[in-house]
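Hi everyone, sorry if this is the wrong subforum. Our group has a chain we'd like a structural model of before ordering constructs, and none of us has done structure prediction before. Sequence below.
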Amino acid sequence: MNDTVVTLVGNAATGVDYRETPTGGVARFRFAVTPRRWDRRNSAWTDGSTSFYTVCAWRSLGANLTASVNVGDPLVVHGRLRVRDETLDGQRRTFVDIDAVSIGHDLTWGTSAFKRAARANTALTERPVDMSAAASAANAATAGNGSGSGSGSDAGPGAVGKPVHTQPWLSEQDESAAPVGAAGVPTGPL
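Answer:
Right subforum, don't worry. Here is the predicted structure as tokens:
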């Protein structure tokens, strides 16, 4: 994994061109980055030479980009740098592309309102929950000794003081401090 990852700040130089491909939709646009420097002699800001990049965004990022970006919008682009050489009309030319991982408006120059896109397959964005462990903990708590305390030796995981790991982003120490319901499943906020 020897990719060069860059973050660029600039403006959309062209409109977004979106196309469907066999591997998913792709959006492309040209991105202009102009460095500004303080000129001490003139006591003013001056523009350097503008660099142009072709930005490619795949699948949902490309679809959301098409609906969100217009020509001239200030953007922050984060992605993998690709440099390619081509020969056109007998001349060798170098092109610099960015395979975007993330793109957003540069809020230094204005405001933006975020609107979550509707997803067709919500299983990709839901938090993971171990349903088999939660079900066995609930069964063990009710089948234990009738009291629902789960203090018997046949109690399932999480029935006695140790919560079921329904929040994999928390460590055991963090999760054990969360309130635990009767089935041993944390009842605190997710």
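For your construct planning: The beta strands are 5-12, 17-21, 24-33, 36-39, 44-47, 51-58, 74-88, 91-105. The first strand starts at residue 5 and ends at 12.
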